[in-house]
Amino acid sequence: MKLSKIKEILPSLKNVEFQLENGNFVPEHFHVTEVGQITKNFIDCGGVIRTEKVVNFQLWNADDFEHRLKPIKLLHIINLSEEKLGIEDLEIEVEYQSQTIGKYDLEFNGNHFVLVNKTTACLAQDACGIPSEKQKKNLSELTSDSGNSCEPGSGCC
Hints:
Blueprint: H1 3-9, E1 18-20, E2 30-43, E3 49-61, H2 71-85, E4 92-97, E5 101-108, E6 113-117, H3 125-128
């Protein structure tokens, strides 16, 4: 989800709620401790130089059980970040800590925001020599070479 989309959604919400893909909700007393833009410059395993940019939200659970972030407040934080930091209209990545800090993509299901698990991938599969899909063969298609086979009772095993 891009930053412009969350800005479009927030005014229509009564509460800001985040749910993990497993169905668990981020506790209602979470804080958005950071809104920023992250630029990642790197070289992939094929030697290609790459740049990725995302808008980053960091969610944090505090001991402040009375705190509830309202949509208008989050919209204000986003607008202030755009104004002061020059944040671009990019895809949003959410950091949220469970066992460790996880990074999630963001979607909206019509009621609340969903933290979608991110996965790693090789960006240079053509350079790695890893086939894009494993070739499948039927067992009946495999033939044995009589010179390299071992028959039961033959003493070769």
